[in-house]
Specification:
elongated; mainly alpha; 5% strand
C-alpha cells in the first residue's frame, strides 16, 4: 500500500521548516523542529500547517512559546524569540498553494475523531466488563479442589 501524497515526506511543503535545527542539545546532538514538536506532544505537520496559516510575526510569537517549553540546550529561554523568527522563515507563506495540501490532512484527522472516540468507548467498555467479571469471580485460587468423600468398601 502506498502513502497518499499528503502524507509523503517528499511532497510536504513543511520539510524545510520541520528539518531545520532549533539548536544543539546538552548531549551535543542537533535538535530539529520535528523532534522538538514531537517531544512536546504536538503533531509536527499539523503544527507547521497552523503556523504557516498565521502571519509571520504571529507565527514567530506562537512558536517562541513552544521553544520556551523545551529544555535548554545551547540556547536559553530568552533566545526563543530569535530562534522562532529564524525558523518561521522556512514555512511556506500563507495562501501558498503548497501550504493548502496539509489542510486536507488536518480535516481528515478531525473527521476521523468520532470514529476514534467510538473505538475508545468500546475498548473501555470491554475493559470495564472484564474487570467487573473478575470481581464477581469467587476467590478460589489458593483453595484445594473440593474432594468427594466416599465410604470405604467393606468386604
Amino acid at each position: 500500500m502506498t502513502l497518499r501524497p499528503e502524507y509523503a515526506l517528499g511532497n510536504s511543503p513543511y520539510n524545510e521548516f520541520l528539518f531545520a535545527a532549533v539548536g544543539e542539545e546538552k548531549a551535543g546532538q542537533s535538535l530539529t523542529v520535528l523532534s522538538a514538536l514531537a517531544r512536546l506532544g504536538f503533531d509536527p505537520w499539523t503544527e507547521a500547517a497552523r503556523l504557516a496559516a498565521l502571519p509571520r510575526e504571529a507565527a514567530a510569537r506562537a512558536f517562541a512559546v513552544t521553544i520556551a517549553m523545551l529544555p535548554e540546550g545551547d540556547w536559553q529561554v530568552t533566545d526563543a524569540d530569535i530562534i522562532a523568527t529564524r525558523l518561521v522563515r522556512w514555512l511556506p507563506k500563507p495562501g501558498d498553494a503548497a501550504a493548502r495540501v496539509p489542510t486536507k490532512v488536518v480535516a481528515a484527522q478531525h473527521a476521523a475523531t468520532p470514529a476514534k472516540r467510538r473505538w475508545l468507548f468500546w475498548a473501555a467498555l470491554a475493559v470495564a466488563g472484564l474487570a467487573f467479571g473478575l470481581v464477581l469471580q469467587p476467590e478460589t485460587l489458593f483453595e484445594p479442589p473440593h474432594a468427594t468423600v466416599t465410604a470405604p468398601n467393606r468386604l
